[in-house]
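Purpose: get a first structural picture of the assembly so the mutagenesis plan has something to point at.
Setup: two entries, given in the order below. No constraints added.
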Amino acid sequence: MSETILEVKNLRTEFKREKSYVTAIHDVSFSLNKGEIVGLVGESGCGKSVTSMSIMRLLGDTSGKITNGEIRFKGRNLLDLSEREMQTIRGSRISMIFQDPMSSLNPPIRIEKQMIEAVRIHENCSKEQARKIAADMLHEVGIPDVENTLRSYPHQLSGGMCQRVMIAMAMACKPELLIADEPTTALDVTIQAQIMDLMKKIQKENGTTILLITHDLGVVAQMCSRVLVMYAGRIVEQADVHELFYNPKHPYTKGLIACVPKIGSDVRRLPSIPGSVPDLSVMPKGCKFAPRCQYASDRCLKGEPDLVLVDGRENHWIRCYLESKDQTM
Amino acid sequence: MDENLMSVQDLVKTFEVNKGFLAQKKYVHAVNHVSFDIKPGETFSLVGESGCGKSTTARLLNHLIRPDSGKILFEGKDIAALKEDEMRPLRSDIQMIFQDPYGSLDPRMKIQDLIAEPLLIHTNLSAGERLKKVQELLGLVGLSPEHGERYPHEFSGGQRQRVGIARALSVNPKMIIADEPVSALDVSIQAQVLNLMQDLQEKFHLTYLFISHDLSVVEMISDRIGVMYLGTIVETAPKKEIFAHPLHPYTKALLSAVPIADPEQHNERVALKGELPSPVNPPSGCLFHTRCPYCTKRCREERPQLTEVSPGHFCRCHLMESA
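Result (structure tokens, whole complex):
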């Protein structure tokens, strides 16, 4: 067994809404091993981004609060750290890249200054050294004209270039864990392909662990070794990528895989999942997917299943009564 | 030749940039000599990456903006030359569905009033008749009559897009221009909306111009596909042909960049060099030559023409002409 970098246990995050609290993520547990790329997939509002914000402890400015659970980074519980201690981890040991590269950079400041600042917060070095690190990183992420890019303002760069700059900044301090929240969603497919190759290269060369948050099953299939599927704030299935695509167990995962149009399949009609994702404040009782599930029985409407191992499998977990018959209610 | 419902001939649209006193005038070549035909009852799709001019083309066809030159023949009549009030009667024949289901519905209007709005403009129906028609339309797009009493914010993205479709259908159009209708939706909802659009097409013999950046969505819904790059169409062909035998290097690159949702299958990537050139200063010769892996001297100097390589399959590439 390789070294565990991050272990999330029974995480629960709630958001305040006027007088009541709504649970955005509930009982989320998973672990990431050194050097692997793990995909976190789900549709909008399923809690993917709240999970990443919780790990980074970036919920401070929102009405969100972590009310239960542990987030262990190399054995240390991040929830016990003070804000100051957290700051030394954020950006240097755990980095994050976001969906919209254009708005993650400060528009009136040159790339050069932003990168030097980011490097110097975490590394004790001179401006010149920091600039050297920044230039090396830009070179590494495949930016052709490094000097020119350093002197540019964000609006002078294309979306793909901005995302490369963001990745360079995130990687500048050689973090052990990179959380990438929909890193290619705002980009065109040809640019997406380039960024995906770049992230794979980083993982291979530096042994960086990557948590890749996405809604795109194509990206997951091409990038990840393990997948977590989220629905309504819960992990409903967890398996190796091959197992998940060839032997999905949860009705939601099955539906999700079926409704992705595949090039060359020549179909006119796609299977779809009826209904839509439930609102956080009016969550159904029992299994959260039951109202959209064609196999739902009385039992599914009454009690909520736990995340348990699929019979006879080692690394395949599922939150469903149908596949785990011995579960008690 | 009246077998085409719409025939677009040599359409050009530029936008002025850098406006201002003393500033040198520059033009964005948004749509650069685009031609295609759409037959009644078919779905023709335009695909391409951001900035390739697909949305500008849609807005030109719907007479929301005027072309600099070129013709748009709708049932044989050139609508590009029409004045706004001459166009109005034709508007009920060409309807549009937009990308953003959140931004295209007035938040202060009830759903039933939103759907009835085109009826108010284009027909002489009484209030009661309009309401009856609205309820019929709600049923058609898979919503219930009670939904009519609600406001847009009470709807999910998929439901709003259904409302958008009901609105477009209300005046019995011949043609619907759908500009990225499912891009803002989750995959499970996307499939619902695409299936609905195909059901309605069969039922009412609609003609679609479908605009998307997503090749897998386009493959599912289209009969014929046009691939756009920097304001021009580089390849058009029937759906099967373009996916089985893509000819233009850009089409090949685009197809190979789509990640396959299967961990055991990997595309052989056709890598593209560099970045999309600015449409303010389009490259000389073939517009794609700056990024093309097979670029020759001729490509840098001479602009290729759209030529028919096999029946119905057109490609704008020097390499294909010689082959």
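The radius of gyration of chain A is 21 Å.
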